[in-house]
Design a protein that fits this description.
Blueprint lengths: L3 E11 L6 E10 L5 E13 L4 E5 L2 E11 L4 H5 L11 E6 L27 E5 L5 E7 L2 E7 L6 E7 L8 E3 L4 E5 L5 E7 L4 E9 L3 E6 L2 E15 L4 E8 L3 E7 L5 E5 L3 H5 L24 E3 L5 E3 L2 E5 L5 E5 L3 E3 L8 E3 L1
Antiparallel strand pairs: 1-2, 2-3, 3-5, 4-5, 5-6, 7-8, 8-9, 9-10, 11-12, 12-13, 13-14, 15-16, 16-17, 17-18, 18-19, 20-21, 21-24, 22-23, 24-25
Length: about 350
């Protein structure tokens, strides 16, 4: 019969200047003859602040989600801990004082956080208001939610609903504090002003056709269109909208500050990949109707181009299936270059 340890009283030794620390526990062991040995303090791990975050308030510093790299040689067997070198579960601890900034690590540290009242489902976006407030856009139960928090995340300023597509990212116009989002009708993009007290002036700024005519096996076919991404170029002032026209086809529209709208048909997904895809299970290169939480990846770049990156399984007609990142596809502003390029 092996000795049975009774583990109590974890203790953390931490140097806030160097960021080094240790995790200790008190071990009290019941011997085979019924007697007890101990208690004795045992070192079980070295703290790792790489994934941690802290908050300093009212003379108390609190660290969250700090792991420990387990040590201790063969003690892990007696203590029933994972093998040395593995990470412990996240730890939280506090100590009196103020943070002096001496800890090395990532270039940023989270000093505060907020838990929203909305569960994230599919696309979630976070933006910074010109006032310094934080804007959170999330989707749940086929409804879009917009919440605004003060810069220190301590106060929620408002919470409102918008009719947005559940699986499309929102976009942000910082110069006007405007939110762009794909509407729940699948064919419109909205623009709404965001203030410190709520949303105002919701309007449709772009609309894609309900259907498009594509060629499949030499025959013309009408298919339904669905918006899969929207992005706004802050420098260029151009709104880009990506939408699918059936499984293999996609189209892109751009709207500039004057309201001028241009439409561009994109190449078939198989032509971009360079190998014929199985049309029953394709890569959805230009996004999916309902993508179960995958972000569409449409973004506006500073030079006026738009890029869309998609990760998914590629199933080919020869039944070969590969998983690899989908090729980035850039659609340039129409007044700069009417063509398209691949990254």
């Amino acid at each position: 019969m092996r000795p049975r340890p009774d583990i109590r009283g974890p203790r953390i030794v931490f140097d806030p200047v160097s960021g080094e620390g240790e995790l200790h526990i008190n071990r009290h062991t019941k011997q085979c003859n019924g007697g007890w040995f101990g208690p004795e303090e045992v070192l079980v791990g070295d703290l790792n602040l790489g994934a941690g975050r802290f908050n300093s308030e009212d003379g108390v510093v609190t660290w969250y989600h700090v792991t420990a790299t387990l040590t201790g040689g063969g003690k892990h067997r007696i203590l029933k801990l994972p093998h040395p070198g593995r990470q412990s579960r996240p730890l939280n601890f506090s100590y009196p004082g103020t943070f002096n900034g001496g800890v090395e690590g990532p270039a940023y540290r989270a000093t505060s956080d907020a838990i929203t009242d909305i569960p994230g489902e599919n696309a979630v976006s976070v933006f910074e208001h010109s006032s310094g407030a934080v804007i959170v856009v999330a989707n749940h139960d086929d409804t879009g939610h917009v919440e605004e928090y003060s810069a220190d995340l301590k106060t929620r300023l408002f919470s409102e609903e918008i009719p947005s597509r559940v699986s499309s990212d929102a976009a942000w116009g910082g110069q006007t504090d405007s939110l762009y989002y794909a509407g729940s009708d699948d064919h419109s993009v909205h623009k709404v002003a965001v203030t410190g007290s709520g949303l105002s002036g919701d309007m449709v700024v772009a609309t894609v056709p309900d259907t498009s005519t594509i060629t499949v096996d030499g025959e013309f076919r009408d298919v339904g269109n669905i918006i899969t991404g929207a992005a706004f170029g802050e420098d260029s002032g151009v709104l880009g909208v990506l939408y699918t026209a059936g499984r293999q086809h996609g189209e892109f529209i751009s709207v500039d500050r004057t309201g001028d709208l241009k439409n561009r048909e994109l190449p078939r997904a198989s032509d971009v990949i360079g190998k014929e895809l199985d049309d029953d299970y394709t890569a959805y290169l230009y996004g999916e109707a309902y993508n179960s939480g995958y972000r569409t990846g449409l973004r506006a770049l500073p030079d006026g181009t738009f890029i869309h990156v998609r990760d998914g399984n590629h199933a080919y007609e020869d039944e070969e299936c590969q998983r690899r990142p989908t090729c980035p596809h850039q659609s340039r502003q129409w007044h700069r270059d009417p063509g398209h390029g691949h990254g």
